[in-house]
């Protein structure tokens, strides 16, 4: 089974991430930030990547370091678990509706971090959660996972729905991209021979 375990400790956060790519989408995520845990659970459930995440962060300041650093550690774990990328589909995309929200995610496990983020959340907060941290998370995931990631909100009026649709869309796209393609099981999906 393709898996990874990452521990990352700084003066701001202490994180452990355990993932298994060929899982069933089981999850056990505790970061101290309720809405963020809800989003990480969606990411696991809809990518079918088993995910156990723990973070003790400096929440007395705000949620920023916790959300960003979990993105960093999860990106590192994904990159490690995917390994040399032999046999993977590499690309994934999903157009995901959730009530008023319609979000498109397209990604390439290219090794070239690039985030295109086209989503304006209509409120500054979801409960106590700063909505600007949704982008921060995906920026960190893209950078440290080596992922070209495009996220576009095509419609939406509710911040919770839009953010959740983004996590679910990226999850479904990730599921597709990390899956092995039986037609090319021993090949790296690039004419360059490396990714
Ligand atoms: Mn929800």
TrEMBL record:
GO terms for biological process: L-histidine biosynthetic process. InterPro entries: IGPD_sf (IPR038494), ImidazoleglycerolP_deHydtase (IPR000807), ImidazoleglycerP_deHydtase_CS (IPR020565), Ribosomal_Su5_D2-typ_SF (IPR020568). It catalyses: D-erythro-1-(imidazol-4-yl)glycerol 3-phosphate = 3-(imidazol-4-yl)-2-oxopropyl phosphate + H2O. It is found in: Cytoplasm. Signal peptide: none annotated. Its main location: cytoplasm. GO terms for cellular component: cytoplasm. The keyword Chloroplast does not apply. Belongs to the imidazoleglycerol-phosphate dehydratase family. This is Imidazoleglycerol-phosphate dehydratase.
């Amino acid at each position: 089974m393709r898996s990874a375990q990452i521990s990352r400790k700084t003066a701001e956060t202490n994180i452990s991430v355990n993932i298994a790519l060929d899982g069933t989408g089981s999850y056990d995520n505790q970061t101290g930030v309720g809405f963020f845990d809800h989003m990480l659970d969606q990411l696991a459930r809809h990518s079918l990547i088993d995910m156990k995440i723990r973070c003790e962060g400096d929440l007395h300041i705000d949620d920023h370091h916790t959300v960003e650093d979990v993105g960093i550690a999860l990106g590192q774990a994904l990159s490690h678990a995917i390994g040399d990328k032999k046999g993977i589909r590499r690309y994934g995309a999903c157009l995901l509706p959730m009530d008023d929200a319609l979000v498109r995610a397209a990604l390439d496990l290219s090794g070239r971090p690039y985030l295109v983020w086209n989503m304006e959340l209509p409120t500054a907060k979801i409960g106590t959660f700063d909505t600007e941290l949704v982008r921060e998370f995906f920026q960190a995931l893209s950078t440290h996972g080596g992922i070209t990631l495009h996220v576009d909100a095509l419609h939406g009026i509710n911040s919770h729905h839009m953010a959740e649709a983004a996590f679910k869309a990226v999850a479904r796209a990730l599921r597709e991209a990390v899956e092995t393609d039986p037609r090319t099981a021993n090949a790296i999906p690039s004419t360059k021979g490396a990714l």
